[in-house]
Specification:
Length: 159
């Protein structure tokens, strides 16, 4: 296994994006320090955290002097640095499909449930309309993922 430096994960227990990285770290058997950033209390807006992630969201991973923010970027970084227990298939076609699905989730489904988006939509449309809007938009993303996975079978989504 590649030498593991000290990993520090800036996370929040309710964040699905941060949860992805905890899954990756645990799957790969990597030790890390957990630093809680309470999003409900607005700790992501603290100037000290802004130095860690100028986008002011979790997760962020500090690996020695390397700082990575964004769950997709962190997962790919960990996959490349610690390849011994791979997350992605070696088959190029299956790997591309996995990355396409992950990108669809990261860009077309998950952002629609972020607190900032949900609060903004509720402010503009009201509570009932917010839910209808979110369900409609996320359903489009899930329908796309279903089409991408059509014909795939196995222990995992792509085999």
């Amino acid at each position: 296994m590649a030498d593991q430096g000290k990993l520090t994960l800036y996370s929040y227990w309710r964040s699905s994006c941060a949860h992805r990285i905890r899954i990756v770290l645990n799957f790969k058997g990597l030790e890390y320090e957990y630093k809680a950033v309470n999003l409900l209390k607005g700790e992501q807006f603290d100037p000290k955290f802004e130095e860690i992630n100028p986008m002011k969201y979790v997760p962020a991973l500090l690996d020695g002097d390397t700082l990575i923010a964004d769950s997709f970027a962190i997962a790919l970084y960990l996959e490349d640095k610690y390849p011994e227990k791979p997350l992605l298939p070696q088959d190029l076609k299956k790997k591309a499909l996995n990355l396409q699905i992950a990108s669809t989730v990261c860009s077309g489904i998950q952002p629609l449930q972020n607190l900032a988006v949900v609060n903004y939509i509720e402010e503009k449309l009201g509570s009932e309309e917010k839910n209808a809007w979110a369900i409609n938009q996320m359903s489009k993303g899930f329908a796309a993922v279903e089409k991408l996975l059509k014909g795939c079978a196995g222990k995992y989504a792509t085999g």
